[in-house]
Design goal:
This protein is an alpha+beta fold. The chain is 62% helix and 7% strand. Strands 6, 7, 8, 9 and 10 form a 5-stranded antiparallel beta sheet that branches. It has a 4-stranded antiparallel beta sheet with strand order 2-3-1-4, sandwiched between helices. A two-stranded parallel sheet has the order 5-11. A hairpin with a 5-residue loop joins strand 8 and strand 9. Helix 1 crosses helix 10 and helix 7 runs antiparallel to helix 8.
């Protein structure tokens, strides 16, 4: 592989006009496709196979026009102090609002608070329920604007008016966060390279890659039902790996220049060596993202595949466009150890008097670890183990309006409903009774209601509402506890547990659905998929790393180190978002269960990035070992050339993810913090401390591979041994002068 990529790098360097033209054409084509495609809507959300989804599908069949999974909104009214919602003036204001709400083009129905007994016992709080034809993610902006306008008009009458429900659900805006991440990345790259031009190349190519990926997603969004969240994930991951991959190749190019090679030869060798690591690092990220399909949530699968496509684009750009741009830059890209005139004036890597400059920080740190591997290993493992302790009390769930900041209207509506009707009123359960095969449907409906009334944590059970055919009915159950509580989850399981007995007695089927039940089912689906997903991703990556490193212990150590860093990161997430530690610093206004998607999302994204750092750092060590250095010296050599670049890459990733901590959305804030802390743990504790300590302790055994396995495995030559062996040969001379 190294030889092939070496030739590809030299070809792109020589034929730079052709290479640049291809990528400009692809970017233009993707942009035109995005501009001419229909306006992207928000993707539909479904969880095939879950009970809640089966109930929604059944309601669509038996209650045509009901829009069972359509968005809902609750416009909550509170009377001024000393007044009641039943006062004539307040009642007139509410009725006017209800009339205004009914004019919406996507509105199915609006329930009048006074006709539907939706006024609290003390008469101070009332609410109007609004039902829409489409889900919250598919609702038009005009419908949301009309909802907010109606609430604003009602406030002018002196009432306190807040709006809750999923009708206000919108895709979070992250543009400013990405700008902050790019700005920090630019600063880090300038410090790393000491050159504005060298720093600009990774940024330019990463932006081009993200532009192609996101534009392609936009062009296909309507045909493939891709939502805005798909492009958000693709841009975040694409930007991250795009900068990283270009950073490693440009850094290796400058190192080759420092060894006295001609620029075309340096570009070829940079792509042949660092480019090989880029290919395998990219494969691990693709495996992790495509592997999200095992969860069997269509939206998550589409997000993973789209992000994986953007990673593939980033890899191809690093292998072809980077050497082409290096050809355009010419002598303005300085060898490693030299700075541009603007940033320091071409200082060489050697000190005055011909003496070698002081060893860099990577060399000094690696030498320290090699001398004291046991102490460093124990300190690193114990530190991460301590950080992982809170993960033992991990509680998973999906966020609701109760987790929103108190400054939002959704949170204020949630609190008003809890005040007037109890906390469970924010998450009613819908029980669907399918009595099509029952000889006594009405009797079945009555029995289901009676059975539910006898359960704990039930406040209200409404009478069954049958369809026109009389073979299916819905029953609304209001729990005593809030939607995200474990008690409400227990109630859902208890109702479902009654279903078997009811079916045996009446031949009627009982299904529980609604937003709360759907959240519970999603959490369960994600929990069930976590171990298979982890086994698939880690297993495939383990096999891939065996091929890369030609070792059994190095990939095993990489996988175990990753698991340790993920557990520590989950522990930190639990401590902040569930326990409330440092919640003020993170601006976490409401603690509660950790988002159920967090563990599997963290495993997928962080595993790919962690293996990036593992591949780039350890391949340089193996390269030194293969070329004759002893194991301890190979560790130091690997750090001498790679530690600075890996550190820069990790800082860039942490900066990109940390930008999302400032989001007002609790889910985005949690994802940003979780990914940032996970990259910190993995890059600076696992890869920079535990990895060299373990390799120092293992010595030559680290690179052991059974002979039979060595014969079976393909020789991909990531270290560029073929390039070194061919130095001075006729073949290489032919290449150099081609």
């Amino acid at each position: 592989m190294a030889t092939f990529l070496y030739r590809l790098g030299r070809l792109a360097f020589r034929r730079r006009h052709f290479a640049a033209l291809i990528w400009v054409a692809l970017l233009t084509l993707a942009g035109v496709g995005a501009a001419s495609a229909p306006a992207p809507g928000n993707s539909s959300f479904s969880i095939p196979g879950t009970e809640a989804q089966k109930a929604f599908d059944l309601l669509e069949q038996r209650f045509p026009g009901m829009s069972a999974d359509g968005a809902t909104a609750r416009v909550v009214f509170k009377a001024p102090g000393g007044q009641k919602m039943t006062d004539a003036g307040n009642k007139a204001a509410v009725e006017k609002t209800v009339k205004e709400l009914r004019r919406g083009s996507e509105v199915v129905s609006v329930a009048d608070p006074y006709a539907g007994h939706a006024v609290s016992k003390d008469g101070t709080i009332a609410y109007a329920s609004v039902k829409y034809t489409v889900s919250g993610m598919e609702l038009k902006d005009s419908s949301r604007d009309a909802l907010e306008k109606a609430a604003g008009d009602a406030r002018h009458s002196g009432l306190t008016v807040e709006v809750g429900g999923d009708a206000l659900t919108t895709a979070p805006e992250t543009g400013s966060s990405e700008v902050i991440g790019i700005a920090i990345a630019a600063v880090v790259l300038v410090i790393t390279f000491g050159s504005l031009l060298a720093a600009g190349l990774p940024l330019l190519t990463a932006i081009i890659g993200v532009g192609i990926g996101v534009s392609t997603i936009a062009a296909l969004s309507s045909a493939l039902d891709l939502g805005s969240t798909t492009s958000t994930l693709a841009s975040m991951i694409g930007l991250a790996v795009g900068i990283d991959y270009a950073l490693f190749i440009v850094s290796r190019y400058r190192a080759e220049l420092a060894e006295g090679r001609e620029r075309e030869e340096a570009a070829g060798r940079a792509v042949g060596t660092a480019g090989s690591a880029v290919v395998f690092a990219g494969l691990t990220v693709v495996i992790a993202l495509v592997g999200l399909s095992v969860v069997d949530i269509p939206m998550l699968t589409k997000m993973g595949v789209a992000a994986a496509g953007t990673v593939v684009v980033a890899v191809l750009i690093a292998l072809t466009l980077i050497p082409a741009l290096l050809g355009y830059a010419g002598r303005r890209i300085k060898p490693a150890g030299e700075k541009s005139r603007l940033l320091g004036g071409g200082r060489a890597a050697k000190a005055t008097g011909g003496r070698e400059a002081r060893p860099n920080m990577g060399t000094r740190w690696a030498s320290f670890v090699v001398r004291r591997p046991v102490s460093v290993l124990l300190l690193g493992v114990l530190g991460l183990g301590a950080a992982a302790v809170p993960a033992a009390s991990l509680q998973l769930g999906l966020p609701d309006d109760g987790s929103q900041p108190v400054s939002t209207t959704q949170r204020r509506a949630y609190d008003l409903l809890s005040e007037g009707f109890g906390p469970g009123f924010n998450g009613p359960l819908m029980v669907v009774v399918d009595a099509k095969d029952s000889h006594d449907p009405k009797g079945a409906f009555t029995r289901v209601g009676d059975e539910i009334k006898g359960l704990k944590d039930v406040v209200t059970v409404t009478p069954a509402m049958p369809n026109k055919a009389g073979d299916t009915a819905t029953i609304t159950v209001v729990p005593n506890s809030k939607p995200s509580s474990a008690t409400t989850e227990d109630l859902v399981h208890a109702i479902r547990g009654k279903g078997a007995g009811i079916t045996a007695a009446t031949d009627a089927k009982v299904l529980v659905t609604g937003a709360t039940a759907m959240n519970i089912d999603v959490s369960q689906r994600l929990n069930d998929a976590l171990l298979p997903y982890l086994a698939l991703v880690v297993g495939l990556a383990f096999l891939l790393l065996i091929v890369v490193f030609r070792s059994v212990l190095v990939p095993l150590k990489a996988a175990l180190g990753f698991l340790l860093s993920v557990l520590a990161a989950l522990g930190a997430v639990v401590a902040v978002f569930q326990w409330g530690w440092l919640s003020g610093l993170m601006n976490v206004e409401e603690t509660g269960p950790v988002m159920s998607m967090m563990p599997i999302f963290m495993v997928g994204v962080v595993f790919g990035l962690a293996m990036d750092y593992e591949v780039f750092l350890v391949t340089r060590m193996r390269e030194a070992y293969v070329h004759g250095e002893n194991p301890a010296q190979a560790v130091v050599t690997g750090f001498r050339y790679s530690a600075r670049v890996v550190t820069a890459a990790a800082v860039i990733m942490i900066a990109v993810f940390s930008g999302f901590i400032g989001s007002s959305e609790a889910m985005i804030k949690m994802i940003g913090f979780g990914l940032a802390i996970a990259v910190f743990f993995d890059a600076f504790i696992v890869r920079m401390a535990i990895v060299p300590a373990v390799l120092a302790l293992l010595g030559r055994r680290a690179w052991w591979l059974p002979k039979w396995l060595d014969r079976v495995l393909p020789d991909v030559d990531v270290e560029g041994e073929g390039l070194r062996a061919g130095a001075g040969s006729d073949t290489e001379k032919e290449l150099v002068h081609a």
